[in-house]
């Protein structure tokens, strides 16, 4: 490990103590290091400093802000291997997958570096000859982001890059399980020329303490959160007192539908990619599989064969496809879901065994029915429950029968059906003959209790801009 890791270890890690947070490797439960836990007064000071820096930053031209982000992007590319290694050590995902996330995270920096120069206002035809009407876009001010452990770099760049491009500052609260990736990506931003007060990493032993400050501090004008729907509801309530702008990317329960005319090999490949990436610990991964009765057995057999080739192990080892779950609590929850589904009548067709530490086998359950508990819950683990269907209208009703509305997937070769089903599914994102749909150029976000607001695409920077109307009279 080279420059970035050495500098990170020297400048960010601290010694074990009451004011430190231990960071563990979920593959072997070893301690990687310790990070400082900031006190409330220190967090308030960081916010004050961020406000002063933001007022200067918004005075920069869009091109000047863009240039800093472009340099940040280049540094991320140059240090991609080190960043991936940090991520694998603290999060567990396979090294190749971590490298893919680094590149995905970098794409948001590049995209919003370009979008910084496209925050256009407009002129409005006036109803009165003596007036001229127009709008301009201005940064909302100091922003805050609370990010999860499952994508510790991409979830930061997807929020911080548009905020910085718009002229805002950004305080980031990463998950305590994966803070080193946050420190590392921020360190590269500083090396690119970004003042440290504009991108601030904040950790505390209690996420509740940081959340309360972010939600209630009047100088923070925008809060972006990625995490569970339960926590999202709480944050929305807490921000009400300051009428803070928010965007919420919350839980998911994605249906993955395979119609009778689907390319089965493509559907199986998409199912494996969608379900078992990051050991199933993603908000957009396939959560329940609906397969047409006429091809059900064939699909399950092919699915089992494909999953049987996945290699489980330490993400740093070559050829590993599935790393550990983030911690033993997550593993216990996943094993409980398997036991519960089997008790309700599901058949264990593959896997299901608990392995050492935080590892477990990828699991396929067949003969699952809509009334089973596993169908209504966000699994967040490597379990694939497979249901049968015959009637399309009944299928759509079941697929939409959830409080969530983030991602959905289906496979068909019928163009007419593709449009009708895509329009009928109550989800913010629909993958048609694709198992991996996330990209910086398209809007990411959900409906229903999966949240509101969009990240990425041209919509992503709008979340950090206010529209000001100008009326000029006496013309």
UniProtKB/TrEMBL annotation:
The record's similarity note reads: Belongs to the aldehyde dehydrogenase family.
Establish whether keyword Oxidoreductase is in the entry.
yes
The GO terms this record gives for MF are: succinate-semialdehyde dehydrogenase (NAD+) activity
PROSITE patterns named in the record:
ALDEHYDE_DEHYDR_CYS (PS00070), ALDEHYDE_DEHYDR_GLU (PS00687)
Q: Which Gene3D superfamilies does this UniProt record tie to the protein?
A: Aldehyde Dehydrogenase, Chain A, domain 1 (3.40.605.10), Aldehyde Dehydrogenase, Chain A, domain 2 (3.40.309.10)
Question: SUPFAM superfamilies, from UniProt?
Answer: ALDH-like
Q: Which domain of life is it from?
A: Bacteria
Q: Which GO terms describe its biological process?
A: gamma-aminobutyric acid catabolic process
Going by the UniProt record, its keywords in alphabetical order are:
Oxidoreductase
Report the active site residues.
249
Question: Which segments constitute the Aldehyde dehydrogenase domain?
Answer: 19-469
Report the protein name in the record.
NAD-dependent succinate-semialdehyde dehydrogenase
């Amino acid at each position: 490990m080279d420059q970035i890791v050495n500098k990170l270890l020297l400048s960010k890690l601290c010694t074990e103590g009451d004011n430190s947070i231990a960071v563990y490797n979920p593959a072997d439960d070893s301690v990687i290091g310790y990070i400082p836990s900031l006190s409330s007064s220190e967090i308030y000071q960081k916010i004050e400093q961020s406000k002063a820096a933001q007022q200067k930053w918004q005075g920069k031209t869009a091109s000047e802000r863009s240039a800093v982000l472009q340099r940040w992007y280049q540094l991320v590319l140059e240090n991609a291997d080190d960043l991936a290694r940090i991520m694998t050590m603290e999060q567990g995902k396979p090294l190749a997958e971590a490298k893919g996330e680094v590149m995905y995270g970098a794409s948001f920096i590049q995209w919003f570096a370009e979008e910084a120069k496209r925050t256009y206002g407009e002129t409005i035809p006036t109803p009165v000859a003596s007036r001229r009407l127009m709008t301009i876009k201005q940064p909302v001010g100091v922003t805050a982001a609370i990010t999860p452990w499952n994508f510790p770099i991409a979830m930061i760049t997807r929020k911080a890059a548009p905020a910085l491009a718009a002229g805002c500052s950004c305080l980031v609260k990463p998950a305590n399980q994966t803070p080193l990736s946050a420190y590392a990506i921020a360190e590269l931003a500083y090396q690119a020329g970004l003042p440290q007060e504009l991108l601030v990493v904040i950790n505390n032993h209690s996420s509740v303490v940081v959340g309360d400050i972010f939600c209630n501090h009047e100088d923070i004008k925008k809060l972006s959160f990625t995490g569970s729907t339960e926590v999202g509801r709480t944050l929305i309530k807490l921000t009400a007192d300051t009428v803070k702008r928010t965007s919420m990317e919350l839980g998911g329960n994605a249906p993955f539908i395979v119609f009778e005319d689907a390319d089965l090999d493509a559907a199986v490949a998409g199912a494996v990619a969608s379900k078992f990436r990051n050991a199933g610990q993603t908000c957009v991964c396939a959560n329940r599989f609906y397969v047409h009765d006429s091809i059900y057995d064939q699909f399950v057999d092919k699915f089992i064969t494909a999953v049987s080739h996945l290699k489980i192990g330490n993400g740093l080892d070559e050829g590993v496809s599935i790393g550990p779950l983030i911690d033993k609590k997550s593993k216990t929850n996943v094993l409980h879901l398997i036991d519960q589904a089997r008790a309700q009548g599901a058949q264990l067709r593959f896997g299901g065994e608990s392995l050492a530490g935080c590892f477990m086998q990828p699991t396929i359950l067949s003969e699952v029915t809509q009334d089973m508990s596993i169908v209504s819950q966000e699994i967040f683990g490597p379990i694939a429950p497979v249901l049968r269907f015959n009637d399309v209208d009944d299928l759509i009703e079941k697929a939409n029968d959830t409080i969530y509305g983030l991602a959905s997937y289906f496979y068909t070769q019928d163009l007419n059906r593709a449009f009708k089903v895509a329009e009928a599914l109550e989800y913010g994102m629909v993958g048609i003959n694709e198992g991996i749909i996330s990209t910086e150029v398209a809007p990411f976000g959900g409906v229903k209790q999966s949240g509101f607001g969009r990240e990425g695409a041209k919509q992503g920077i709008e979340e950090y801009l206010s529209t000001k109307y100008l009326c000029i009279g006496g013309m």
